[in-house]
Design brief:
By secondary structure, the chain is an alpha/beta fold. Helices cover about 15% and strands about 40% of the residues. It has two helices and eight strands, in the order βαββββαβββ. Strands 1-4-3-2 form a four-stranded mixed beta sheet, covered by helices on one side.
């Protein structure tokens, strides 16, 4: 007989994010060389990187249930400095860093680019309001 669900249970820690790509080696080069994410290891058709404790799994999906686009949001302390650093490495942003939300305590700033397969890469920065 199944046990009743634990109301306190909730998922919280992300162990790995799969990012669908058409060429894992090309994608790994972009994430490693242009975005500066630490490369862990690879196999034919797949690559793994460490985004500060969250593993990115770049692969051509074997099953069409895993096709689609990913959106990865990376926290940065200074979004203007981060965007300028990445632009110096050849990353092209579709928009400039801009405020998307103000809750009276923090402003949330974002800007976006794409990887070679069209997956969305967002930079996000929470900036405390002076007060």
């Amino acid at each position: 007989m199944p046990q009743s669900p634990d109301p306190a249970f909730g998922l919280s820690t992300i162990g790995q994010i799969m990012v669908p790509v058409s060429d894992a080696e090309r994608a790994a080069a972009f994430y490693r060389d242009q975005l500066g994410i630490r490369y862990l290891f690879g196999f034919p058709g797949m690559a793994f990187l460490d985004a500060d404790g969250v593993r990115l799994y770049l692969a051509s999906p074997e099953n069409e249930d895993f096709q689609g686009r990913a959106t990865l949001y990376f926290r940065v302390a200074d979004i203007h400095e981060a965007a300028a650093t990445l632009e110096a490495r050849g990353v092209v942003f579709g928009d400039r860093p801009h405020k998307v939300h103000d809750d009276g305590v923090n402003e949330l700033w974002m800007c976006f680019t794409k990887d070679p397969d069209g997956n969305n890469i967002g930079l996000m920065s929470e900036v405390p309001l002076a007060g």
